[in-house]
Every structure is written in C-alpha cells, then in structure tokens.
C-alpha cells in the first residue's frame, strides 16, 4: 500500500541530563553563548542546541556528565548558573 507516512507531528529530542526521550515541546533548548549555557525559550537562537528537561535534577546530571561541552563541541566547562537560577525559581 502507498500513502502511509509516519506521523511527524511530535518531534522528539533526548534530554542531555537524564538521557530520556521526550517531546521537543517538553524540553528546553539550551545554547552556548560566550562560555555560558543560556535558555533559548523561543528556540530561535543560532548555533548548536542541547535539549534539557527544565528541572534542577536534569541540569545536575548534565553538569556531572559534562554533557554541555560535549553537546556544543567546545573544549572547556560552561557556566550554568543562569540555568540553575531559572530552574530554582520554577521549583518554588
Ligand atoms: Zn531530563
């Protein structure tokens, strides 16, 4: 039979923290700007993106496994204070 195309309405991405797949809309896109990880709320910032659940636990996992430098293909550690602050606020 022809005409059967897979549904592509719900793109999935892998969280760089817990490594679980989730709908792109459930994850926050992160980009590296001048050595810091910053949230890309609108998904419009240029450059390589990493996807993360907007949760402190996933951020912690990502930092521990150095997922951000790997995702962005940069050699050094990246600042994540802005993300930590953002997720802390959401948890309160
Ligand atoms: Zn996660």
SSE topology:
Layout: E1 12-14, E2 21-23, E3 28-33, E4 36-39, E5 49-52, H1 56-64, H2 67-72, H3 81-91
Antiparallel strand pairs: 1-2, 3-4, 3-5
The structure holds zinc ion (ZN).
The site of zinc ion has 6 residues, from loops.
Task: Name the descriptors.
about 90 residues, alpha+beta, Hypothetical Cytosolic Protein, Chain: A, three-stranded antiparallel beta sheet, two-stranded antiparallel ribbon, binds zinc ion
Structural overview:
- The structure is a single chain.
- The chain is built from three helices and five strands, in the order βββββααα.
- By secondary structure, it is an alpha+beta fold.
- The chain has one domain: 2-Layer Sandwich (Hypothetical Cytosolic Protein, Chain: A).
- A three-stranded antiparallel sheet has the order 4-3-5.
- A hairpin with a 6-residue loop joins strand 1 (12-14) and strand 2 (21-23).
- The radius of gyration is 15 Å and the shape is globular.
- The mean pLDDT is 91.
- Zinc ion binds next to loops.
């Amino acid at each position: 039979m022809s005409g059967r195309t897979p549904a592509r309405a719900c793109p999935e991405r892998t969280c760089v923290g817990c490594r679980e797949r989730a709908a792109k809309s459930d994850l926050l896109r992160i980009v590296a700007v001048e050595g810091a990880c910053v949230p890309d709320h609108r998904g419009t910032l240029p450059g390589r993106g990493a996807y993360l659940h907007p949760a402190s636990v996933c951020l912690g996992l990502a930092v521990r496994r150095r997922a951000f430098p790997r995702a962005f293909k940069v050699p050094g550690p990246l600042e994540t204070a802005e993300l930590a602050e953002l997720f802390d606020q959401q948890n309160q």
